[in-house]
Write a structure and sequence with these properties.
The chain is mainly α. The protein has helices at 37-42, 51-68, 86-108, 113-142, 163-170, 175-183, 185-202, 211-218, 220-226, 228-235, 245-250, 253-273, 290-317, 338-366, 369-376. α2 (51-68) packs antiparallel against α3 (86-108), α3 (86-108) runs antiparallel to α4 and α4 packs antiparallel against α14.
Length: 385
């Protein structure tokens, strides 16, 4: 069996590993740097101080996928590969990459100090990509005029809205706000995502004393930026008739957003405070330390975000006049391959180039230490009795 292949390597205390590997208030359960790939994979099934970090983001991948596919079975939903769902798939890609990269970063970071740095560079990059995936979903499903055609531009394929709907459309949104969402919202989201990657990667090579505070506060920026469509919806009249089924479906969105924000706040508090291990160093080394709670809270925030987006998708599907036609000249044209997958591809290419640059610098710093570490710890390949 896989788990019986050889003896596990010994776990070490914080005094037996390089300072670069240690975490505040975590005293034991460390894996030795220079684990093989096989040893890292096997360590997922033994209690180390990274085991919980791996499972609290690996298992949620399947939970998220279970709830995500619900939308394709709803009445009136187009095919899963229709342009209408392009933003949803980009959102899924962002969340999947975030959860997978985070879990693998915690599982594989003991291969070497260089690999450890690269793992977390990738982790930061996927977080930024996820924020842009969220922004795409907000842009096409939550913004109050997403895909709504101006009255002067309607063609025969779009039935006229009732008078109450027309009154709502005439009152929202203001021209300057429309200009912002049409021309600047997604570019700003991408620029902020790139700034976040640069800042978080820098905290691994400088500013280390305040790294947790910096990383947490840095990712407050994309939250505020991506959430502007939601804030605007809260301040303006709903685009749906108050007597319509779309309006009823859309009323659940604020509740999910508040819960999404609450979970993010709680996760930030865990990440900065390092509670509970700060209160009892050594007691929560394996299970229950702050990073595991941070992972749980971030996933709960993502799950509520998914439900929030789905509520708006359902509202759109219940009102065919609000569907997103990619060929219609509207203030916010419907999703296309270029505006969704193309945008994410360009962003990911930029992020990868940033990660490569930081990884090269990390290799120049920590690469020469590999042989030295092996000489200093000759017991690495000894079997444990």
């Amino acid at each position: 069996m896989l788990l019986n292949c050889g003896q596990p390597l010994p776990l070490l205390s914080h005094t037996d590993v390089p300072p670069r590997v240690t975490e505040n208030f975590i005293l034991t359960g460390y894996r030795f740097p220079n684990y093989s790939l096989r040893e890292c994979l096997l360590s997922a099934f033994r209690p180390t101080n990274e085991t919980g970090n791996f499972w609290t983001h690996f298992l949620p991948i399947f939970i998220f996928a279970y709830y995500f596919v619900e939308v394709f079975g709803w009445d009136g939903a187009p095919d899963a590969d229709a342009p209408f769902f392009y933003p949803m798939w980009n959102y899924f890609i962002g969340v999947f990459c975030l959860l997978m990269a985070s879990s693998l970063a915690h599982l594989l970071n003991s291969m070497s100090l260089v690999v450890r740095e690269v793992c977390f560079f990738v982790d930061y990059g996927t977080i930024s990509a996820y924020t842009v995936g969220s922004s795409l979903a907000y842009y096409y499903y939550i913004h109050p005029r997403a895909g709504i055609v101006e009255r002067g531009q309607r063609n025969s394929s779009h039935s006229a809205l009732n008078r109450e709907d027309e009154g709502v459309l005439a009152s929202s949104p203001m021209p300057d706000i429309s200009l912002f969402f049409e021309n600047y919202y997604m570019p700003c989201a991408c620029v902020i995502a790139i700034i976040c990657v640069l800042s978080c990667c820098n905290t691994r090579q400088r500013w280390r004393e305040h790294r947790y505070i910096i990383r947490t506060l840095v990712f407050l920026l994309p939250f505020l930026m991506s959430s502007t469509p939601i804030f605007y919806r809260f301040l303006t009249t709903s685009p749906y008739s108050t007597t319509s089924s779309s309006f009823a479906a859309s009323t659940t969105m604020p509740c999910f957003f508040y819960r999404h924000s609450l979970w993010l706040l709680v996760s930030a508090l865990f990440n900065i405070s390092k509670v509970p291990e700060r209160l009892a160093p050594g007691r929560f080394d394996i299970w229950g330390h702050s990073h595991q709670w941070f992972h749980c809270c971030t996933f709960l925030s993502i799950l509520d975000e998914l439900h929030m987006i789905q509520a708006e998708v359902r509202a759109i599907l219940l009102n065919p006049d609000f569907l997103l036609p990619p060929t219609t000249l509207s203030p916010l044209p419907g999703p296309t391959v270029a505006s969704t997958y193309g945008l994410m591809f360009l962003l990911q290419t930029t992020i990868i180039s940033i990660i490569v640059g930081f990884s090269w610098h990390a290799n120049s710093i920590y690469g020469p230490q590999r042989d030295q570490l092996k000489k200093e710890h000759p017991f690495k390949h000894m079997k444990v009795n």
